[in-house]
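Re: the request from the purification team.
They wanted to know what the chain is likely to look like in 3D before they choose a buffer screen. I agreed to run a prediction and write the result into the notebook, where they can find it.
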Amino acid sequence: MDDIRLRTLLAAVRLGSFSKAAAELHTTQSAVSQTMRRLEDELGCALLTRTHAGVALTDEGRALLPALLAADAALVRMKEEAADLQRGQEPPIAIGAFSSISNTCLPRFLKGYQTAHPRVRYRIFIGTDILSEWLLAGKIDIALGDETRLGNFMFTPLADDRYFAVVPRGSIP
């Protein structure tokens, strides 16, 4: 599957119309229709229903949409990294982290790493339950979170946390 087919499909889905997708992509409605037909042939299933009112995803299209979005994100990232390499820059390290980690530990971790590797750049993504999905999709290179949510991956503890309960005085005998 090439990126033109993927971008065409995602535009048609987002806009709900082949003609609107064609206008956005600076092509013809016929070219969009042919591109979608080729993509569906390649995948072996119908992705879109076509009516006089526009287009919508089929059940198969809805089932494949997360993978299609992940493929599009990976292609965009690959192009960004290739452009960085052409400019002589290393691609940034994409880090996904819980909000609490990004506000407390991450600045300290990055400061130490930055001292040893001053040319390294970072992209920080904040999330919780989505970190696993981002790892699988290639959106992030590393995730900082807990073993409950990220335990299906190689997990390396960075610190031991002590937990405390804060309660009003006199509430516990």
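For the purification team: The helical segments are 3-15, 18-25, 29-43, 59-86, 99-103, 106-116, 131-137, 147-150.
Please add any questions underneath this entry.
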